[in-house]
Amino acid sequence: MRYNVGFSPLKTSMNDLAPIQAYSPRELVKVHLEDLGAPVVREERDVERKKNEIKQLLARNNAVLVAHYYAPAVIQALAEETGGCVADSLEMARFGRDHEAKTLVVAGVKFMGETAKILSPEKQVFMPTLEANCSLDIGCPSDEFSAFCDAHPDRTVVVYANTSAAVKARADWVVTSSIALDVVDYLDSRGEKILWAPDKHLGSYVKRRTGADMLLWDGSCIVHEEFKAKGLLDLKAAHPEASILVHPESPESVVELADVVGSTSQLIQAAKAMKSKKFIVATDQGIFFKMQQACPDKMFYIAPTAGEGATCRSCANCPWMAMNTLDQMLEVFDHKYNEIHVEPIIANGALVPLKRMLDFKS
Ligand code: SF4
Q: Is the N end or the C end of the chain the one with fewer CB atoms within 10 Å?
């Protein structure tokens, strides 16, 4: 399957939604999820056999596996066992760019594969599935976003990494959650007013912390938005000695309860550095693989997402990240499926703010 930016590989492309302006970011995400159907997270079978097969295929194809902290634990373990990396999106981008392998297999979501391809156009970039997207990306279509930028020409455009290549191509800066505060602080010190997209919770957190003049796009992460302050307080009451770690894509009421607010890598570092032996963590459950590895003597509890009467205690598991499976990985090599292509004009446009991000803290 060939992937082109601007074309949705799902059954319903965004072009089928007419007129697109009639949908809010939240509605766009809802339509997308309905179209996708409820992704079934199947328990992996024959894990060791499949892992061994994939290891051989990676070596034979001079390929390296680059996985996100939210990818399933079995995929993260495979990346580590094969000399690949498990990281946040900023470090994934750097690792893929700097690695000598000719082929990158990116286990994450669409924008991560696109970023890898833009930074390493000479390499072949594959993903276990092209259907793995992100509610922030879906909720920020490039044509609407471009119109938003046109309406505010006096503002510096800063977009989160969780956006399409086309949206990045319209931006002055790309940031991840690990450097968002520093970049906005820097721009604010130069007297620049900011247009921020797409995550409103992260944007509002950065705005509160820096005091910068920021105009926010109305997007959100369907995983982090579900964390509940009330549930978090109840869990804290049951474990008063636990420290609370929160990703800033969470709502303000949850962020306010945190002992540490930070990106995935910053939360792992905090768990290691802090004296606490117990932690309540408000981010995707995939992070526990590396967190527990880094702190084998500590205990971690997932922050509650469920309200009163719900059947699950926490649904903090990204449905798109969960689509990265061993079977999908095997398909990549069997048929050379799922190669990422980005139109050169968009790739060249997106490369400018991406390089700015990588150079900002190199
Ligand atoms: S966890 Fe949220 S921000 Fe991350 S990929 Fe999934 S939907 Fe996007």
A: C
